[in-house]
Every structure is written in structure tokens, then in C-alpha cells.
Amino acid sequence: MIRVGHTERVLIDPVGPGVPLDAHPLLVEAVAVCEQLRSDAEQVDREGITRTRLDAVATAGLVTAAAPAELGGGAAPPAVVREIVERIAGACGTTWFVLTQHRSALEAALVTEVPSLHELWARRLATGEALGGVAFAHLRRPGPPQVSAERYGNSWRITGSLDWVTGWGVTDVLCLMAQTDDQQVVEVLIPARLRPGLTVTRPLPLMAMGGTRTVGAHLDSMVVTASEVARLIPLERWRTDDANRTVNTSPAVFGLIRAVLDALSDAGVRRRSDAIDAAATAFAERARSLRAEAYHLVDAVEPGQAHQERLAVRAASLLLAHEVSAALIAATGGAAMSLGSSTQRHAREALFMLVQAQTASLRDELFVQWRSAATNSAATNSDVSVGEVR
Which among 128, 342, 345, 361 could bridge 63 via Cys, Cβ 3.0 to 4.6 Å? Predict the structure, then answer.
């Protein structure tokens, strides 16, 4: 049960978990932690996330569920990791988004061939003792590099601007990527704090995810030593790997959908509305189908294959999250407009999902599906008179 104000209710969860709770001990931890995350998610959304909150999730082993066991991680299978992500995202989008940055910093520390860098960060990141942030979305943009790197003796000088650095002030290490003139990506791991050549803005006023302590940053010939460079990656290979990841649907989308449909089902019970119940049931069936297809594509199909199918599923899932959150607002009524309501938070998070890790291919697919829906709707309505609509 979860506490809502001074009342308690049972989670309905019409979509249901992807794996049973007894599949892994970390799932039991996830249920307990997420109950607490859910209880004050609106406050965190408004006032900003704290390191104490992140440490509570990390201490439970949920941040590093997939990390190698020999370094203190959970070594959990992908299905379990996805279920954990779904639960955290459904409980508190702010917490999920800050913690999702950690993966790239951990990966850099694990794969680097610089012994001192591996020794400094790998175990601390694998256990969650240290938390990571990232800055690399600029590499997806065409045209001249937004963040460039040039040789400076045995070091590198990095220049440019970062529109978004999430978790500033509550993370320990920043995984920063910059582009060279010869089409290489310089991936660095540096302490997430100010240094010569690195300045940041105040936390950005954002419509959604405003509590994630996201700042902008300016890099003015910031010097990075060779011991801070995790690796050099050919830009084309980086973009291929990134494309293979971003075509897939994030488990966070299904976590949000689960949370919204739980609330929608609860609204149907409270209002004794067959219409709300029927809509929630139909939405849940659609969500289960999309989730099964999304995870099948990840587990059973090679990463470089079926990109169009993956994009179609991701776009459909994002549009479903948007639709169910709008339905919840309608079911909730005027109370949904209160900043203390989870309903409005979920709706803003659904909008955020449309742009998080967005690519040109995803954007095009979203509009293809919107156009298809509009065309089908117009064809249907052309056969219905105004009187029939009324």
C-alpha cells in the first residue's frame, strides 16, 4: 500500500510488472524505495532533488543494478534492470532522470584503458558511492561541433557550450564528450565541479524536470589532462552506437504509463465510471503490447537491425504516455491543476519524454503517426453528421 496524504490505497497497476517481484532481491528493494520516492515527488519536482535522496536509491543497489558484481554492482539481468527503471520513473521522474545520467559515466570508467582513471572511478561508480552526470547530446547535432577538443601538449583543450548538464551539485563526476577536427570523440571523466575554463549557469527554469538541477555550461579552453581522458572514439562509430540505443523505447516511458494508468484506474473506481474503467483497460492492453514488442526488439534482435520497427514502437509508446496523462487530467478535473497534484506532474513528464534523447528520425516518426491518426480521424468524421456527433 502507499500513503497519499492521510489515506492509503492499494496500487492497482493495470499494466503490471515485466517480471515478477521474486525474480531478483533488488525488486523487493525497488518497491520499498519507490513508495518513499512517490510520497514527496511533487515537492522534489518544485524544490529540487537532494543528494540524500539519490543516496537512498544508490544504497539500495538500484542505481547500479547492472554493474559488474566484482566491482560491487548488482549484476542483475536486463529484464530486472528494466523493471527497476520502470518503477523509479513511475514514482518520481526527477529522481529517474538524474540517475539515468549515471550509466554513461559508469561505462566510461569500466572501458577506459587508463589505469589511474579506472582505479579512481570504476568501483565508486559501480557501487553507487559516486554518482555520474553526462554531457554529449550536442554530438547528435549536424553542422560545426558545438563542443570541440584540440591537442594541447599531452593534454586537451575543450571549448564550447553545453545547453544541459543535469544533476549539477548532486553528482560527483561528469562524463563529457567533445569533437576533434579529425572526427574523433574525446570522452573525459572529470570531477563535477567548477575548474578553470568551466563555468555554469544557475539551475535552468524548466517546464518539466525543473527539479533535476540542470544547468548550462560554458567551456573556455578548459584543459583536460591525459589522465582524465577515458578514450577516443571515432565519431561515426559513436553516432552508430548512439543511434542503436536511441531507437529503443526507454523503460522509463512504460514506468510513467504504469503510474498514470494506476491513477486513472483508481479514478474510475472513485467516480464509479464505467467509461473511465473501459478506457484504462484499453490503454493498459495497448501498453502491455507495446512494452512486449519493445523489449523483444532489444532482447532478440541485433542492435543494428529493425530500426524502423523500433522507432515505430518508441513513437507509439511516447504518444500513448501523452494520451493517458491527458486522460488522467480529464478524469481528475480541476484538482489536476494544483502543483501538489501528481496528475499535472505526470502530464509534464510525458511531454518531456517527447524530447528526451530525441533524434531527427524519432521526430519524423512521431509526425508520421500523428498524421496517420489525424487522417484516420478525418475519414471517420466525414461519415458522421454534426447531429450524430452531438
Answer: 128
